[in-house]
């Protein structure tokens, strides 16, 4: 579903008007003791949450799990549209999925404070799989990327920042050793929703050219104008199975497992954010949203364990789940500040090193102090 259309009414006017029209105070119990406005007929505070329809949130989408004290409307959207909605759109969603890198840049470079992060890394992905090469250019290992032309759709998205950071930290290949080609057209835009302004930040100290208008990164790789692609999703050229295109790491599962064993990092792409004025008016909502996402994920774990092999079309689903739990623990998709600290600190470091964020962020400044110690109940 697309984002809500922008109207002439500001989000603050929207919030104030909604509060004035609500039905009075509500005692929300131990975990929601504040007095808040009721949704007509429900006795709960109406909120909108936007995000992708991941399995780990489907219980929340289907209202099998509830945000305590709230009546939730879940709006499906894509990350480019959600970022734009939060950074420069109507900001009508009280809770939204948001790109980690764009949030860091808006926070550090532009003083953006309209939304604050919750410690819910709702999308984590290993990134060795996201480097795609022409197989006729003699590129066999990461070091072979030095001096090559590499295209990216945008430049400063979370996925691209992680790819460059891993290449530098693990293989010594620095961004300034590459000739970058940035495309305004993304062959996977149907999945990503395009790039917000904070996904198109270009450092000043690099060799960067802009691709011809209308040419995607896949077009350039097929034509041979470039040597490789870094892409946060699956570019069309790999979806189509072009005979001269492959991943730099064909056995990326093995490489990514080794990376996790070495670093303990499960890279974070997207977080959940809560609108600051809403959170300040209803401070209990931070914890309530965190707990709802955690419960929804726990239900997904249970279904994966009990019925995953039946529901999934993957023939070795059960083995994959077992091996993942052996490597990363039963709660392998962990939420919480401390559970995410290594990945967050690496992301902050990469963004600063790459000349994207003007300063290196600290964890304590991007989360409200009341949720720094939140932990999941996974017993």
Question: Keyphrases for this structure?
Answer:
D-Maltodextrin-Binding Protein, domain 2, globular, six-stranded mixed sheet, 379 residues, 2 domains, disordered N terminus, five-stranded mixed sheet, alpha/beta
Topology:
Layout: H1 11-21, E1 45-51, H2 58-61, E2 70-76, H3 79-88, E3 95-99, H4 100-110, E4 115-124, E5 131-134, E6 149-153, H5 158-171, E7 179-183, H6 189-192, E8 207-210, H7 217-223, E9 228-230, H8 236-239, E10 245-247, H9 252-263, E11 268-275, H10 276-281, H11 284-311, H12 317-328, H13 337-353, H14 363-366
Helix pairs in contact: 5-13
Outline:
The protein has 379 residues and is α/β, with parallel strands linked by helices. 38% of the residues lie in helices and 16% in strands. It has helices spanning 11-21, 58-61, 79-88, 100-110, 158-171, 189-192, 217-223, 236-239, 252-263, 276-281, 284-311, 317-328, 337-353, 363-366; strands spanning 45-51, 70-76, 95-99, 115-124, 131-134, 149-153, 179-183, 207-210, 228-230, 245-247, 268-275.
